[in-house]
Design brief:
Elements: E1 8-13, H1 16-26, E2 31-38, E3 41-47, E4 52-57, E5 76-79, H2 83-92, E6 98-100, E7 105-112, E8 118-124
Parallel strand pairs: 1-4, 5-8
Antiparallel strand pairs: 2-3, 3-4, 6-7, 7-8
C-alpha cells in the first residue's frame, strides 16, 4: 500500500457558519464539497480539490483538549504562498496572530480558529528543498 495524500481533518465546532467564514477568510478559494446532517447536527466538507476540513456543528459541546496541554493535536499546519499577504488579510479582518522564526521559513504565522484550534500558516524559503 502506498500513501497517496493527506485528505482531511475532522473538527467539531460550536457554530458551523462562523467556522466556515473564518476558514474562508484564510483560504478564499475553498468551497463546500459536501454537506449534510448526522444525528441532528449539521456538517460540511470545506476545502479545495485536494484537501478539506470536515466541520461538524456541536453547539452544546465544550472544548476538552487545549493545544499543548496533554495528549492531542497541538496545531494544524497549512503551507501558504505569501506570508505578507496573509498577515494583511488577518489584520484587515481583526484576527489576532503571532509569528515565529525558523531557518527554513519566511513566515510562520499562528492563529486560533473560533473554537480555539491553533492553525500554523507557513511560507517556506525558496531555497528550502522540502517546501
Amino acid at each position: 500500500m502506498q500513501f497517496l495524500r493527506f485528505e482531511h481533518i475532522n473538527l467539531s465546532c460550536q457554530d458551523l457558519e462562523t467556522s466556515k467564514q473564518f476558514y474562508q477568510t484564510l483560504f478564499p478559494d475553498w468551497f463546500v464539497r459536501a454537506k449534510g446532517e448526522w444525528q441532528n447536527e449539521r456538517w460540511i466538507h470545506f476545502g479545495d480539490r485536494q484537501f478539506y476540513l470536515a466541520l461538524n456543528e456541536s453547539p452544546d459541546a465544550e472544548r476538552t483538549q487545549y493545544p499543548y496541554e496533554g495528549i492531542g493535536i497541538n496545531h494544524i499546519g497549512f503551507v501558504i504562498d505569501d506570508g505578507e499577504k496573509m498577515k494583511a488579510v488577518l489584520e484587515a479582518n481583526g484576527i489576532e496572530y503571532c509569528t515565529m522564526d525558523a531557518p527554513e521559513t519566511k513566515f510562520r504565522i499562528y492563529v486560533s480558529d473560533p473554537d480555539g484550534n491553533e492553525i500554523e500558516l507557513v511560507e517556506y524559503q525558496d531555497a528550502y528543498e522540502l517546501r
